[in-house]
């Protein structure tokens, strides 16, 4: 069905985004490999993410933004990015955590209701990445908030972000 | 010795502000910065880079300052475009521009305390030790007083997937009277980091200064290193860089035009723009292995000849060209969209000029300035194109400048593809002698990008100054938003497409 919607939407060739998704999931049908079912079990198909930029170069955010475009369209899996941390289940942190953002990240974390999950997206958020030795950073999200899972890449592609979010949620739900 | 188009002019400290004012009348102020050169000659130095309109030359005024007297007469009262640069020098070096109208810090937030991070005798570890995260910022926002005036504080974590910054609106009813932004939440200490990673690895860092300008930044950085080393890269490497800079402009401008639709709540327009952008991003990935065009630029050249994939480029761009034409027709026919753009977020030519605007924001306000033409570099000297300008300075003009530039980029890519480009991909760089310096520059999607590099004695840079387009354009937002309604802020903001990370460094 998804494939059908996609083809209708673009009228032309198969979506590049779906190719990319197929490549990471190994799914041949264009349907997320078991995605919705897995999500259903864990979070009843409703995940709200508050993305927090803690000093990233902004490429990681653009890939998160791309998840909302018609090609990746994560909302069909029940995933949405929200503005208020009070509405969120997940905090997705990008960037090495600049000193200026350390306090704001902590406050945002505290504002998210329990149960909550923290995902560090991108190499910077893992351990500081290229910024590791700079004077203004804290070497990754884990230096401020407890991190449940990492998404590697600089930046990780939208398809990779999607796949990793699914995996992390699944293992967190166990 | 410095590259041919750079002329250094030594000025005494008491004369500096008068001289700068004189130059600013007929020249653009490209950037202003300081360097701690005590290890070379015992002094700090301040540089102001001017370029005369219509001439490929940089007149760089420079003065020495002694450590025991780091103050000079501020040039901001005479050259308003210098206002952020002077505050930056005060924060980073402790150089005091006396008489500067704004005494507040710019970059350093409260937790840093009193350190001057770019002084050479201050180490990264030393700065970290002095940091106290619980120290309040204490930034004093500009207050607007009067009946019915109220403040709306927003950020640093604010709506949607966006970089962090704090905005203090003073509004009367729905109308914004004044916007006072507090930025630099993502300040990471990038310029200092450049000094320790060395020339070669600096290219990877430059790629990560601002995500969607990765390639323009690394091109300008590599160019600065190459000019400092006194080498010239091959025509083939130049053509590859030129082509990819234009690819970067394409995905940015098309994405930006789409994003403006998000600012007016026009979901279909946003979606169409996002699809076109995504096709270009996928092309980027197939050509370079990175959606953000990373890994191609290295000091001394490029790692891949993307012209080998000419067929792929042509076929994808053909599709995008057609798609873009339909997209623009669709947008311009949608009165509900264009009506919101016209007359919104006005930036007058006068203010744009005096405040040193750059890129599409400047050209939409009638300033015909494009680094690709003003200072022909890479393959731009052999290409025929113009700087596209509009006169009104509203959101609509900023969209139309981008539309024209998209078409211009298509034709630049076409003409590059018709030619043969000879030479090696990479040129080796010998050791760079201490004290040598040079500029590197290009016109990125958001406007001009400048780097200035000076070599130290240890085979590493003594100073890498990064001047991104957004550093010039951020202060303009407060002027453009004055008198608009609060709900139009996202739209006006998107029309400038400012980078936080590229500005905060
Ligand atoms: S991981 Fe890479 S892409 Fe993401 S914020 Fe860091 S430097 Fe940018």
Termini Cα gap of chain A? 29 Å
CATH class of the largest domain in chain B: Mainly Alpha
Structural class of chain B: alpha+beta
Helix content of chain B: 40-55%
Q: CATH H-level name of the largest domain in chain B... which superfamily?
A: Cytochrome-c3 Hydrogenase, chain B
How would you name the oligomeric state of the polypeptide chains in this document? heterodimer
CATH topology of one domain in chain A: Rossmann fold
Compute the average pLDDT of chain B.
92
> What is the molecular shape of chain B?
globular
Strand content of chain B: 15-25%
Largest sheet of chain B: 4 strands, mixed
Helices and strands of chain A, in order, run as HHHEHEEHEHEH
Q: Name the average pLDDT of chain A.
A: 79
N-to-C span of chain B: 29 Å
Low-confidence stretches of chain A: 1-18, 20-36
Describe this structure in words.
The complex is a heterodimer of chains A (174) and B (505). Helices cover 40% and strands 13% of the residues of chain A. Chain A is an alpha/beta fold. Chain A has a 5-stranded parallel sheet with strand order 2-1-3-4-5, sandwiched between helices. In chain A, α2 crosses α7 (158-173) and α3 (35-43) crosses α7 (158-173). The longest helix of chain A has 16 residues, at 158-173. By secondary structure, chain B is an alpha+beta fold. Chain B folds into 2 domains: 6-130, 2-Layer Sandwich (Beta Polymerase, domain 2); 190-496, Cytochrome-c3 Hydrogenase, chain B. Chain B has helices at residues 16-26, 38-41, 83-93, 124-130, 190-207, 214-229, 235-263, 267-288, 310-333, 335-341, 349-354, 360-363, 371-374, 395-417, 469-481, 489-496, 501-504, and strands spanning 6-10, 27-37, 43-52, 58-65, 71-73, 96-98, 149-154, 166-172, 175-182, 297-298, 301-302, 437-444, 447-455, 461-467. A 4-stranded mixed sheet of chain B has the order 1-4-3-2. In chain B, α3 links the parallel β5 (71-73) and β6. Chain B is globular. The structure holds iron/sulfur cluster. Iron/sulfur cluster binds at residues 56-57, 59-60, 94-95, 122-124, 129-130, 154-155 of chain A. Iron/sulfur cluster (SF4) binds next to α4 and α6 of chain A.
């Amino acid at each position: 069905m998804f494939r059908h919607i996609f083809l209708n939407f673009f009228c032309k060739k198969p979506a590049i985004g779906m190719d990319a998704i197929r490549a990471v999931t190994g799914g041949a049908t264009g349907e997320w490999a078991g995605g919705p079912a897995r999500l259903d079990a864990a979070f009843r198909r409703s995940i709200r993410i508050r993305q927090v930029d803690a000093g990233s170069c902004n490429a990681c955010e653009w890939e998160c933004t791309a998840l909302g475009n018609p090609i990746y369209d994560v909302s069909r899996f029940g995933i949405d990015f929200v503005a208020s941390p009070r509405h969120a289940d997940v905090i997705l942190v990008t960037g090495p955590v600049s000193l200026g953002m350390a306090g704001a990240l902590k406050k945002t974390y505290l504002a998210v209701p329990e149960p909550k999950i923290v995902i560090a997206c991108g190499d910077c958020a893992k351990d500081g990445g290229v910024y590791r030795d700079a004077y203004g950073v804290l070497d990754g999200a884990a230096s401020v908030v407890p991190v449940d899972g990492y998404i590697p890449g600089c930046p990780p592609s939208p398809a990779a972000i999607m796949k990793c979010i699914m995996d992390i949620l699944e293992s967190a739900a166990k | 010795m410095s590259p041919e188009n750079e002329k250094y002019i030594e000025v005494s400290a008491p004369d500096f502000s008068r001289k700068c004012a004189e130059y600013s009348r007929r020249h653009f102020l490209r950037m202003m910065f300081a360097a701690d050169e005590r290890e070379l000659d015992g002094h700090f130095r301040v540089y102001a880079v001017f370029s005369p309109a219509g001439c490929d030359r940089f007149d760089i005024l420079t003065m020495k300052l002694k450590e025991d007297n780091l103050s000079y007469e501020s040039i901001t009262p005479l050259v308003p475009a210098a206002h952020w640069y002077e505050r930056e020098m005060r924060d980073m070096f402790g150089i005091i521009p006396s008489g500067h109208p704004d005494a507040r810090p710019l970059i350093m937030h409260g937790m840093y305390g009193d350190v001057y991070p770019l002084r050479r005798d201050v180490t990264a570890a030393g700065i970290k030790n002095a940091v106290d995260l619980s120290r309040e910022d204490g930034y004093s926002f500009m207050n607007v007083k009067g009946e019915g005036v109220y403040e709306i504080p927003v950020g640093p974590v604010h709506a949607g997937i966006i970089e962090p910054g704090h905005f203090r609106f003073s509004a009367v009813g729905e109308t914004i009277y004044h916007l006072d932004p507090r930025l630099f939440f993502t300040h990471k200490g990038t310029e200092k980091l450049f000094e320790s990673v060395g020339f070669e690895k600096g290219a990877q860092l430059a790629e990560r200064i601002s995500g969607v300008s990765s390639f323009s930044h690394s091109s300008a950085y590599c160019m600065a290193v190459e000019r400092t080393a006194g080498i010239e890269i091959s025509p083939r490497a130049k053509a590859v860089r030129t082509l990819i800079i234009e690819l970067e402009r394409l995905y940015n401008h098309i994405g930006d035009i789409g994003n403006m639709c998000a600012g007016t709540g026009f979901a279909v327009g946003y979606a169409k723009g996002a699809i076109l952008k995504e096709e270009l991003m996928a092309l980027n990935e197939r050509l370079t292995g990175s959606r953000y065009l990373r890994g191609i630029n290295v000091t001394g050249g490029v790692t891949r000849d993307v012209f080998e994939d000419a067929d792929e480029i042509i076929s994808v761009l053909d599709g995008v060209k057609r798609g873009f034409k339909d997209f623009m027709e669709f947008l311009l026919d949608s009165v509900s969209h264009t009506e919101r753009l016209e007359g919104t977020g006005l930036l007058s030519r006068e203010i744009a000029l005096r405040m040193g605007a750059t890129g599409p924001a400047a050209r939409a306000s009638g300033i015909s300035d494009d680094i690709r033409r003003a200072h022909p570099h890479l393959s731009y000297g052999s290409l025929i194109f113009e700087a596209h300008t509009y006169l009104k300075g509203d959101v609509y003009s900023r969209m139309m400048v981008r539309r024209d530039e998209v078409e211009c980029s298509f034709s630049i890519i076409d003409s590059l593809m018709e030619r043969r480009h000879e030479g090696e991909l990479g040129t080796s760089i010998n050791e760079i002698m201490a004290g040598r310096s040079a500029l590197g520059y290009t016109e990125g999607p958001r406007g001009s990008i400048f780097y200035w590099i000076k070599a130290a004695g240890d085979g590493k840079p003594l100073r890498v100054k990064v001047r991104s387009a957004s550093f010039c354009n951020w202060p303009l937002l407060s002027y453009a938003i004055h008198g608009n309604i609060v709900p139009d802020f996202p739209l006006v903001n998107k029309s400038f497409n400012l980078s936080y990370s590229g500005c905060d460094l």
